[in-house]
Every structure is written in C-alpha cells, then in structure tokens.
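quick one, two chains, predict together pls
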Amino acid sequence: MSENIKKFMFVNTKAPYGTVYALESLEVVLISAAFDQDVSLAFCDDGVFQITDNQKTDGSGMKNFSAAYKALGDYDINKIYIEKESLEERGLTLDNLMKLTYEDEDDDWAEKDSIHLVTRAELADLMDKQDVTISS
Amino acid sequence: MKFTLLINEGPYQHQASDTAYQFAKAALEKGHEIYRVFFYNDGVNNATRLAIPPQDDRNITENWAALAKEHELDMVVCIAAAQRRGMLDADEAGRQGKDANNIHPAFRISGLGQLVEGGIQADRLLTFGD
C-alpha cells in the first residue's frame, strides 16, 4: 500500500449548523483515517466556525458534534490549517477556537498543537500540493 | 484518465447531478474511465427509483441507470447519508424493519470507505456540488 499514499485535503467552508455539510464532511474525514493516507483539514470562509470553542446547540435542537474534532489527533489527523483572513473577517482569533492537539509518537508522545494558522496564499499553495481535495 | 465522481446535491433542486452525468458521458465517449460515481449528502436522492418527473423533462435516475448499464459503471450510495434520508434498498429495508425500499437497482449501497478508495484509485476525483 505504501506506494499508494495520497495527500487528501478536506476543505471546510460552511458553518457547522444550518446545513449538514460540516457534519457529513467530518464523517468522511474519520473514515479516511482508516486508509493510512496523508490527511489534512482546512477551514476557511464560514468553515472556521466549525471549530469555535464552547458550541451550544440546545436552543436549536441540532446535534452538537463539535467534540468529534477533538478526537482527530487520536486518529493521527494532526494537520489542521486555519485561514487567517477568514478568521479576521469574522472577528475571530485562535483563542476563539478549540484546542486541537495530538501526541507525537516520534517525540516521546509530547502533546503538540494540530492547528496551523496560514494565509490565504499559503493555503492555496497547500491545496496545490494535494492529490485529492474534497471541499464542502 | 481514470476518474471518480462525487455528487453531493439532490436531483432537480440542483444541477450538480446533471453536470456530473454530462461529464461522465463526455469522458466515456473520449475513452476515459469512470472508476466510480459516489453519491453523498443530498446526492443520495439521485438513486430513488420512485421519482416521476414530468414527461417533457429529463429523468435523472434513469439517465444514470442507462449510462451505468452501457458502461458498467460502479454507482455507490453512501449508506449513512442514505439512511438519514430514508433511502433504502430491499436488503437494508429488511434489516431495519421498514416496509418499503426505494433505491434503483443500478445503484449499490456501501460505506464512505468507497469514496476514499475511489480517491486513491483514480487519477482525479471530481466533486459536483456547492
């Protein structure tokens, strides 16, 4: 299989609630972890709201699935790119987002940050390097 | 070239499935290969065998079924997305204790792994949707 590892990027552009795209995108991401591929996630446009901290859905009756993002590190999905301009345009900073971390097995299981803040131009470069991008 | 197509929007409401169908037809005519067509999100509704579009309009499900028959296409409906939306084949209806099924026999139900595997095996994965 090793010659068959591809770079997959899941690009999330929509708010977590209001449509089902965020939830169903996350379901694909979790499945992809089982295929030993090089998986990364990008959050841009309203997609940055998907990983805001302290989400509460009691009033809307929507299923709150935000805790699942915190499990990504356990699935070896630890390349999470946040588009800087999208955060700024929405009055958000990294402090408004969940802490997403992973344990680095090559560094005595040290806890490391999965989140990388990138500019729009840097994200475009990252997208250019992918074999497969799936966006919603 | 070998393509996997991902269709994320339902029929008639959105043109995504029509565009994917036209693409698939054109690609096959040019000698390319369609490795898989995967239906996800509301795209699973493209697999209903019960739709009755007006006679002067296209029948999206039947168009796909005919193309699949001609070219032996592998058309896969995501089981999780399908179950949420009440899309069942006969086997699944039996397993879930439901009294009806609605998936056209040209399509098969399977898991999201088939989408990821489609991305691995194809030269290009193309998404049709918003």
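Chain A has one domain: 2-135.
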